[in-house]
Design a protein that fits this description.
By secondary structure, this protein is of the alpha/beta class. It has helices spanning 15-26, 45-55, 70-75, 77-97, 135-155, 181-194, 215-228, 245-256, 280-285, 293-308; strands at residues 7-10, 32-33, 59-62, 102-106, 159-164, 166-168, 199-203, 209-210, 212-214, 235-237, 243-244, 261-265. It has a 6-stranded parallel beta sheet, sandwiched between helices. It has a two-stranded parallel sheet with strand order 6-9. It is globular. The structure holds guanosine-5'-diphosphate-beta-L-fucopyranose (GFB). Residues 69-71, 73, 108, 110, 133-134, 137, 166, 179-181, 184, 202-204, 208, 210, 245, 268-272 line the site of guanosine-5'-diphosphate-beta-L-fucopyranose.
């Protein structure tokens, strides 16, 4: 991918897509095409075909997706499976038809079986049943991996798939009902501190373990893979370390400086007990993340205060 290459970032305004945009700019890739959701509905095959016909991108980062935290996934499964299947099928097929040189598809660590052996190696995919709270999203993402694999096998397309662990960073969704745990905790602790509240509610038991990767480290990894990886097998992207949700809450509490107590709401689901990725393959290729969790949360909190004007 030379610096003049025409690159399409699907999902450019989201958490991952906006980070890919910053990463491409930092690295001197300036010929990037994007479309807002109001201009191009990626669930519509006709619109996607017209866009590829007009723009003819040479490289594609497929970061567009319907995403959300455990509650959104659990309560709106039809939207998660339909939107994601349509987006990825339309883009991958159009990329094949319009001879895209290379496409990178983004999945998620929830594609692996709920009870997968830890840390989770790439080959554990489809070796057991899925976590029910995000089964719809996981099935769609598994379909995306398989699309890339089979388009490579049958048509020789250079389509690759990356499976990131739980992500966080600037431009995240901070809506308490639909967000992932980290932005939810940042917002809850921040608001509790401002209001001098006594308590903050943490969903579930606090016992699940999660691994968190700062989104700018993910974007660096994606560019690295676009340049250096070209295999049929998907590849995990993570830090190789995880933390108990209860301990994560204590860490966010400390960074924000909230003085009250934590209360567990066990009417909310825990989800997968643990999903730590084995990142040996990525490390062996020569890529390692840079941002430590505490440093990353502090960066996001600084950004959050700025956009909230507080
Ligand atoms: O980040 P999260 O929503 O998603 O939740 P998953 C992680 C854990 O944090 C769960 C707990 O055990 C939640 O119960 N948690 C505690 C909270 N307090 C909160 C809170 O205020 N908000 C939220 N959201 N969680 C998602 C999948 O699973 O991970 C997606 O549903 C996707 O499909 C994504 O794969 C990466 O890690 O459980």
């Amino acid at each position: 991918m030379n610096k003049e290459a025409k690159i399409y970032v699907a999902g450019h305004s989201g958490l991952v897509g906006s980070s890919i945009m910053r990463c491409l700019k930092r690295n001197g890739y300036n010929h990037v095409v994007v479309r807002d959701i109001t201009e191009l509905d990626l669930r519509n095959q006709q619109e996607v075909n017209v866009f590829f016909e007009q723009e003819k991108p040479q490289y594609v980062f497929l970061a567009a997706a319907k995403v959300g935290g455990i509650w959104a996934n659990d309560t709106r499964p039809a939207e998660f499976i339909y939107d994601n299947l349509m987006i990825e099928t339309n883009i991958i097929h159009a990329a094949y038809q319009h001879k895209v040189k290379k496409l990178l598809f983004l999945g998620s660590s929830c594609i692996y079986p709920k009870m997968a052996q830890q840390p989770i190696r790439e080959e554990y995919l489809l070796s057991g049943y899925l976590e029910p709270t995000n089964e719809a999203y996981a099935i769609a993402k598994i379909a995306g991996i398989e699309l890339c694999k089979f388009y490579r096998r049958q048509y020789g397309c250079d389509f690759i798939s990356a499976m990131p662990t739980n992500l966080y960073g600037i431009n995240d969704n901070f809506n308490p009902d639909t967000s992932h745990v980290l932005p939810a905790l940042i917002r809850k602790f921040h608001e509790a501190k401002i209001k001098k509240a006594q308590q903050v509610i943490i969903w579930g038991t606090g016992n699940p373990m999660r691994e968190f990767l700062y989104v700018d480290d993910l974007a660096d990894a994606l560019l690295f893979l676009m340049l250096h990886y070209s295999e049929e097998t998907h590849i995990n992207i993570g830090t190789g370390e995880d933390i108990r949700i209860g301990d994560l809450a204590l860490l966010v509490k400390e960074i924000i400086g909230f003085k009250g107590e934590l209360v567990n709401d066990t009417s909310k689901p825990d989800g997968t007990p643990r999903k730590l990725l084995d990142v040996t393959k990525l490390h062996n290729l020569g890529f390692k993340h840079k941002t430590d969790l505490k440093e990353g949360i502090a960066k996001v909190y600084a950004w959050y205060k700025e956009i909230e004007n507080v």
